[in-house]
Amino acid sequence: MKKNLRPKESLRLGTRTSLLALRQANWVKSRVEELCPEVGVALVPLKTAGDKIKVPLFSLGGKGLFVKEIQDALRRKEIDLAVHSAKDLPAVIPEDLALIAFPEREDPRDVLISQKGGSWAEIPPGGKVGTSSLRRQAQLLSLRPDLEIVPLRGNLDTRLKKLLSLNLEAIIVAAAGLRRMGWEERVSAYLEPEIMLPAIGQGILAVEARSNDLWINRLVSPLNHPPTQLSFLTERAFLQGLGGGCQVPIAGLARLNSGVLQLAGLVATVDGKKVVRGEKKGAADQGPEMGRQLADELLAKGAKKILNEVYTQE
Protein backbone atom coordinates (compact mmCIF):
# COMPACT_ATOMS: atom_id res chain seq x y z
CA MET A 1 0.00 0.00 0.00
CA LYS A 2 1.29 3.45 -0.89
CA LYS A 3 2.33 5.76 1.88
CA ASN A 4 -0.38 8.12 3.22
CA LEU A 5 -3.24 6.12 1.70
CA ARG A 6 -4.24 4.51 5.00
CA PRO A 7 -7.47 5.99 6.41
CA LYS A 8 -7.13 7.68 9.77
CA GLU A 9 -9.64 7.47 12.61
CA SER A 10 -9.43 11.19 13.29
CA LEU A 11 -8.19 14.30 11.55
CA ARG A 12 -6.94 17.51 13.10
CA LEU A 13 -8.27 20.63 11.38
CA GLY A 14 -6.30 23.82 12.02
CA THR A 15 -8.13 27.13 12.17
CA ARG A 16 -7.86 30.66 13.50
CA THR A 17 -9.57 31.36 16.81
CA SER A 18 -12.11 34.04 15.82
CA LEU A 19 -15.83 33.29 15.97
CA LEU A 20 -16.06 33.47 12.18
CA ALA A 21 -13.03 31.25 11.60
CA LEU A 22 -14.41 28.65 13.99
CA ARG A 23 -17.82 28.77 12.28
CA GLN A 24 -16.13 28.21 8.91
CA ALA A 25 -13.96 25.41 10.26
CA ASN A 26 -16.97 23.69 11.84
CA TRP A 27 -18.71 23.79 8.47
CA VAL A 28 -15.73 22.05 6.83
CA LYS A 29 -15.59 19.56 9.73
CA SER A 30 -19.26 18.66 9.20
CA ARG A 31 -18.83 18.19 5.45
CA VAL A 32 -15.75 15.96 5.89
CA GLU A 33 -17.56 13.81 8.48
CA GLU A 34 -20.50 13.48 6.08
CA LEU A 35 -18.16 12.28 3.34
CA CYS A 36 -16.49 9.74 5.64
CA PRO A 37 -18.62 9.01 8.76
CA GLU A 38 -16.01 6.68 10.24
CA VAL A 39 -13.52 9.57 10.46
CA GLY A 40 -13.84 12.16 13.20
CA VAL A 41 -12.51 15.69 12.79
CA ALA A 42 -11.12 17.63 15.75
CA LEU A 43 -10.66 21.41 15.53
CA VAL A 44 -7.25 22.79 16.53
CA PRO A 45 -7.54 26.57 17.12
CA LEU A 46 -4.28 28.42 16.44
CA LYS A 47 -3.33 32.04 17.09
CA THR A 48 -1.78 33.75 14.08
CA ALA A 49 0.33 36.89 13.84
CA GLY A 50 -2.59 38.68 12.21
CA ASP A 51 -4.76 37.95 15.26
CA LYS A 52 -2.17 39.33 17.66
CA ILE A 53 -1.17 42.50 15.80
CA LYS A 54 -3.26 45.60 16.51
CA VAL A 55 -1.82 47.95 13.88
CA PRO A 56 -3.19 48.05 10.29
CA LEU A 57 -1.98 44.96 8.46
CA PHE A 58 -1.02 46.81 5.30
CA SER A 59 1.79 48.50 7.25
CA LEU A 60 3.35 45.06 7.78
CA GLY A 61 2.77 43.58 4.34
CA GLY A 62 -0.53 41.97 5.31
CA LYS A 63 -0.67 38.82 3.17
CA GLY A 64 0.20 35.65 5.04
CA LEU A 65 -0.17 37.09 8.54
CA PHE A 66 -3.33 35.02 9.11
CA VAL A 67 -2.00 31.75 7.70
CA LYS A 68 1.73 31.30 8.37
CA GLU A 69 1.42 29.70 11.81
CA ILE A 70 -1.28 27.37 10.52
CA GLN A 71 0.85 26.37 7.53
CA ASP A 72 3.81 25.81 9.85
CA ALA A 73 1.65 23.48 11.97
CA LEU A 74 0.71 21.54 8.83
CA ARG A 75 4.34 21.16 7.84
CA ARG A 76 5.25 19.97 11.36
CA LYS A 77 2.36 17.45 11.15
CA GLU A 78 0.68 18.93 14.21
CA ILE A 79 -2.51 19.19 12.15
CA ASP A 80 -3.71 17.27 9.08
CA LEU A 81 -5.57 19.96 7.17
CA ALA A 82 -6.44 23.63 7.49
CA VAL A 83 -9.14 26.02 6.39
CA HIS A 84 -8.39 29.62 5.37
CA SER A 85 -10.24 32.60 4.04
CA ALA A 86 -8.79 32.64 0.51
CA LYS A 87 -8.31 36.41 0.56
CA ASP A 88 -5.75 35.96 3.38
CA LEU A 89 -3.51 33.57 1.43
CA PRO A 90 -0.03 34.77 0.43
CA ALA A 91 0.96 34.86 -3.24
CA VAL A 92 3.14 31.73 -2.93
CA ILE A 93 2.10 28.46 -1.27
CA PRO A 94 4.97 26.26 0.07
CA GLU A 95 5.76 23.41 -2.34
CA ASP A 96 5.07 20.75 0.26
CA LEU A 97 1.55 22.09 0.85
CA ALA A 98 -1.44 22.21 -1.52
CA LEU A 99 -4.82 23.92 -1.71
CA ILE A 100 -7.01 20.86 -2.20
CA ALA A 101 -10.59 22.21 -2.15
CA PHE A 102 -12.55 25.41 -2.64
CA PRO A 103 -16.17 25.03 -1.46
CA GLU A 104 -18.82 27.04 -3.30
CA ARG A 105 -18.25 30.76 -2.92
CA GLU A 106 -20.34 32.82 -0.52
CA ASP A 107 -21.53 36.30 -1.53
CA PRO A 108 -18.33 38.16 -2.54
CA ARG A 109 -19.73 41.67 -2.05
CA ASP A 110 -18.92 44.21 0.65
CA VAL A 111 -21.70 45.66 2.76
CA LEU A 112 -22.31 48.91 4.58
CA ILE A 113 -23.51 48.77 8.17
CA SER A 114 -24.61 52.16 9.45
CA GLN A 115 -26.17 53.44 12.64
CA LYS A 116 -29.08 55.05 10.80
CA GLY A 117 -29.40 52.67 7.87
CA GLY A 118 -29.25 53.75 4.26
CA SER A 119 -26.63 53.67 1.51
CA TRP A 120 -23.17 55.18 1.16
CA ALA A 121 -24.73 58.17 -0.58
CA GLU A 122 -26.78 58.97 2.54
CA ILE A 123 -23.84 59.28 4.94
CA PRO A 124 -23.68 62.92 6.12
CA PRO A 125 -20.83 65.08 4.74
CA GLY A 126 -17.68 64.54 6.77
CA GLY A 127 -19.08 61.35 8.27
CA LYS A 128 -16.71 58.83 9.84
CA VAL A 129 -16.57 55.39 8.20
CA GLY A 130 -14.61 52.52 9.71
CA THR A 131 -12.34 50.24 7.69
CA SER A 132 -8.68 49.28 7.70
CA SER A 133 -8.83 48.02 4.13
CA LEU A 134 -6.96 50.28 1.72
CA ARG A 135 -9.05 48.77 -1.08
CA ARG A 136 -12.32 49.80 0.58
CA GLN A 137 -10.92 53.17 1.62
CA ALA A 138 -9.77 54.04 -1.91
CA GLN A 139 -13.03 53.08 -3.58
CA LEU A 140 -15.18 54.86 -1.01
CA LEU A 141 -13.11 58.05 -1.20
CA SER A 142 -13.33 57.99 -4.98
CA LEU A 143 -17.12 58.21 -4.53
CA ARG A 144 -17.20 60.39 -1.41
CA PRO A 145 -13.93 62.31 -0.90
CA ASP A 146 -15.63 64.27 1.89
CA LEU A 147 -15.79 61.27 4.22
CA GLU A 148 -13.31 60.54 7.04
CA ILE A 149 -11.86 57.03 7.15
CA VAL A 150 -11.26 55.61 10.64
CA PRO A 151 -8.93 52.56 11.04
CA LEU A 152 -10.92 49.54 12.17
CA ARG A 153 -8.98 46.42 13.21
CA GLY A 154 -10.31 43.33 14.91
CA ASN A 155 -12.46 40.30 14.23
CA LEU A 156 -15.91 40.73 12.71
CA ASP A 157 -17.74 40.83 16.05
CA THR A 158 -15.23 43.38 17.37
CA ARG A 159 -15.70 45.64 14.34
CA LEU A 160 -19.48 45.51 14.70
CA LYS A 161 -19.18 46.69 18.31
CA LYS A 162 -16.87 49.56 17.28
CA LEU A 163 -19.61 51.02 15.10
CA LEU A 164 -21.17 52.30 18.32
CA SER A 165 -18.17 52.51 20.66
CA LEU A 166 -16.29 54.77 18.22
CA ASN A 167 -19.47 56.61 17.24
CA LEU A 168 -19.00 55.93 13.54
CA GLU A 169 -21.58 56.71 10.90
CA ALA A 170 -20.89 53.35 9.25
CA ILE A 171 -18.45 50.48 8.78
CA ILE A 172 -17.71 48.37 5.70
CA VAL A 173 -17.26 44.60 6.02
CA ALA A 174 -17.58 41.52 3.81
CA ALA A 175 -21.04 40.11 3.23
CA ALA A 176 -19.67 36.55 3.39
CA GLY A 177 -18.71 36.74 7.06
CA LEU A 178 -22.07 38.17 8.08
CA ARG A 179 -23.93 35.50 6.14
CA ARG A 180 -21.85 32.68 7.60
CA MET A 181 -22.51 34.02 11.11
CA GLY A 182 -26.23 34.53 10.42
CA TRP A 183 -26.00 38.28 11.01
CA GLU A 184 -27.45 39.48 7.69
CA GLU A 185 -30.01 41.62 9.49
CA ARG A 186 -27.21 44.04 10.36
CA VAL A 187 -26.71 44.99 6.70
CA SER A 188 -27.79 48.51 5.77
CA ALA A 189 -26.83 48.22 2.10
CA TYR A 190 -25.03 45.81 -0.20
CA LEU A 191 -22.21 47.42 -2.20
CA GLU A 192 -22.40 46.07 -5.73
CA PRO A 193 -19.09 45.31 -7.50
CA GLU A 194 -19.66 48.30 -9.80
CA ILE A 195 -19.46 50.48 -6.67
CA MET A 196 -17.05 48.50 -4.47
CA LEU A 197 -15.04 45.77 -6.20
CA PRO A 198 -14.17 43.07 -3.63
CA ALA A 199 -10.82 41.72 -2.53
CA ILE A 200 -9.14 38.89 -4.43
CA GLY A 201 -10.74 35.65 -3.18
CA GLN A 202 -13.34 37.36 -0.99
CA GLY A 203 -16.08 34.95 0.07
CA ILE A 204 -13.99 31.87 -0.78
CA LEU A 205 -12.75 29.24 1.67
CA ALA A 206 -9.60 27.27 0.86
CA VAL A 207 -8.82 23.89 2.39
CA GLU A 208 -5.11 23.13 2.61
CA ALA A 209 -3.18 19.92 3.30
CA ARG A 210 0.26 18.43 2.79
CA SER A 211 0.90 17.71 -0.90
CA ASN A 212 1.93 14.10 -0.30
CA ASP A 213 -0.99 13.19 1.98
CA LEU A 214 -2.90 11.47 -0.80
CA TRP A 215 -5.62 9.98 1.36
CA ILE A 216 -6.65 13.36 2.78
CA ASN A 217 -6.46 14.94 -0.66
CA ARG A 218 -8.77 12.24 -2.00
CA LEU A 219 -11.14 12.47 0.97
CA VAL A 220 -11.62 16.24 0.81
CA SER A 221 -11.69 16.65 -2.98
CA PRO A 222 -15.52 16.28 -3.22
CA LEU A 223 -15.80 19.59 -1.31
CA ASN A 224 -14.29 21.38 -4.29
CA HIS A 225 -16.59 23.60 -6.40
CA PRO A 226 -14.92 23.95 -9.82
CA PRO A 227 -16.46 27.37 -10.70
CA THR A 228 -15.24 28.75 -7.38
CA GLN A 229 -11.78 27.28 -7.93
CA LEU A 230 -11.72 28.83 -11.40
CA SER A 231 -12.67 32.25 -10.02
CA PHE A 232 -9.98 32.03 -7.36
CA LEU A 233 -7.23 31.01 -9.79
CA THR A 234 -8.26 33.75 -12.22
CA GLU A 235 -8.30 36.47 -9.55
CA ARG A 236 -5.04 35.20 -8.10
CA ALA A 237 -3.34 35.29 -11.50
CA PHE A 238 -4.48 38.91 -11.83
CA LEU A 239 -3.00 39.78 -8.44
CA GLN A 240 0.26 37.97 -9.17
CA GLY A 241 0.49 39.73 -12.53
CA LEU A 242 0.37 43.06 -10.73
CA GLY A 243 2.89 41.96 -8.12
CA GLY A 244 0.79 43.76 -5.52
CA GLY A 245 -0.14 43.16 -1.91
CA CYS A 246 -1.96 44.76 0.99
CA GLN A 247 0.05 47.99 0.67
CA VAL A 248 -1.85 48.88 -2.53
CA PRO A 249 -5.61 49.08 -3.13
CA ILE A 250 -6.14 46.17 -5.54
CA ALA A 251 -9.49 44.52 -6.22
CA GLY A 252 -10.72 41.81 -8.53
CA LEU A 253 -13.74 39.61 -9.13
CA ALA A 254 -14.16 36.71 -11.57
CA ARG A 255 -17.63 35.30 -12.30
CA LEU A 256 -18.70 32.43 -14.54
CA ASN A 257 -22.02 33.01 -16.29
CA SER A 258 -23.39 30.57 -18.88
CA GLY A 259 -19.91 29.36 -19.74
CA VAL A 260 -18.49 32.86 -20.11
CA LEU A 261 -15.88 33.98 -17.59
CA GLN A 262 -15.99 37.67 -16.65
CA LEU A 263 -13.14 39.34 -14.78
CA ALA A 264 -13.12 42.88 -13.41
CA GLY A 265 -10.02 44.40 -11.85
CA LEU A 266 -8.95 47.63 -10.21
CA VAL A 267 -5.86 49.39 -8.90
CA ALA A 268 -6.14 52.73 -7.08
CA THR A 269 -4.26 55.22 -4.99
CA VAL A 270 -5.07 55.17 -1.28
CA ASP A 271 -6.82 58.55 -1.46
CA GLY A 272 -9.04 57.33 -4.29
CA LYS A 273 -8.01 60.16 -6.61
CA LYS A 274 -6.61 57.78 -9.21
CA VAL A 275 -8.52 54.62 -10.09
CA VAL A 276 -7.52 52.31 -12.95
CA ARG A 277 -10.19 49.78 -13.92
CA GLY A 278 -10.55 47.10 -16.56
CA GLU A 279 -12.62 44.08 -17.58
CA LYS A 280 -12.15 40.99 -19.72
CA LYS A 281 -14.40 38.18 -20.93
CA GLY A 282 -13.45 34.79 -22.27
CA ALA A 283 -13.84 31.03 -22.11
CA ALA A 284 -13.55 29.29 -18.76
CA ASP A 285 -10.32 27.51 -19.73
CA GLN A 286 -8.66 30.88 -20.27
CA GLY A 287 -9.13 32.01 -16.66
CA PRO A 288 -5.57 32.42 -15.33
CA GLU A 289 -4.36 33.73 -18.69
CA MET A 290 -7.17 36.32 -18.59
CA GLY A 291 -5.99 37.34 -15.15
CA ARG A 292 -2.45 37.93 -16.38
CA GLN A 293 -3.68 39.78 -19.46
CA LEU A 294 -5.88 42.11 -17.43
CA ALA A 295 -2.97 42.82 -15.08
CA ASP A 296 -0.81 43.79 -18.07
CA GLU A 297 -3.56 46.03 -19.45
CA LEU A 298 -4.02 47.87 -16.15
CA LEU A 299 -0.27 48.29 -15.72
CA ALA A 300 -0.14 49.92 -19.14
CA LYS A 301 -3.12 52.17 -18.29
CA GLY A 302 -1.49 53.65 -15.19
CA ALA A 303 -1.44 50.97 -12.52
CA LYS A 304 2.33 50.56 -12.90
CA LYS A 305 2.85 54.19 -11.93
CA ILE A 306 0.60 53.79 -8.87
CA LEU A 307 2.45 50.65 -7.77
CA ASN A 308 5.87 52.24 -8.29
CA GLU A 309 4.90 55.29 -6.23
CA VAL A 310 3.80 53.08 -3.34
CA TYR A 311 6.84 50.82 -3.30
CA THR A 312 9.38 53.64 -3.70
CA GLN A 313 7.96 55.23 -0.53
CA GLU A 314 8.56 52.11 1.58
Give an overview of the whole structure:
- It is a single chain.
- With 314 residues, the chain is α/β, with parallel strands linked by helices.
- It has 3 domains: 10-105 and 204-224, Periplasmic binding protein-like II (D-Maltodextrin-Binding Protein, domain 2), CATH 3.40.190.10; 110-191, D-Maltodextrin-Binding Protein, domain 2 (3-Layer(aba) Sandwich); 233-312, Double Stranded RNA Binding Domain, CATH 3.30.160.40.
- The chain has 9 helices and 13 strands.
- The protein has helices spanning 19-35, 49-52, 68-75, 134-143, 156-165, 175-181, 214-220, 226-242, 287-312; strands at 10-15, 40-45, 81-85, 97-101, 110-114, 128-130, 148-150, 170-174, 189-191, 205-210, 250-257, 260-268, 275-283.
- The strands form 3 sheets. A 5-stranded mixed sheet has the order 2-1-3-10-4, with helices on both faces. It has a 5-stranded mixed sheet with strand order 7-6-8-5-9. A 3-stranded antiparallel sheet has the order 11-12-13.
- Helix 8 runs parallel beside helix 9.
- The longest helix is centred in the C-terminal third of the chain and has 26 residues, at 287-312.
- The radius of gyration is 20 Å and the shape is globular.
- The model is unreliable at 1-6 (pLDDT under 50).
Helices and strands, with pairings:
Elements: E1 10-15, H1 19-35, E2 40-45, H2 49-52, H3 68-75, E3 81-85, E4 97-101, E5 110-114, E6 128-130, H4 134-143, E7 148-150, H5 156-165, E8 170-174, H6 175-181, E9 189-191, E10 205-210, H7 214-220, H8 226-242, E11 250-257, E12 260-268, E13 275-283, H9 287-312
Parallel strand pairs: 1-2, 1-3, 6-7, 6-8
Antiparallel strand pairs: 3-10, 4-10, 5-8, 5-9, 11-12, 12-13
Helix pairs in contact: 8-9
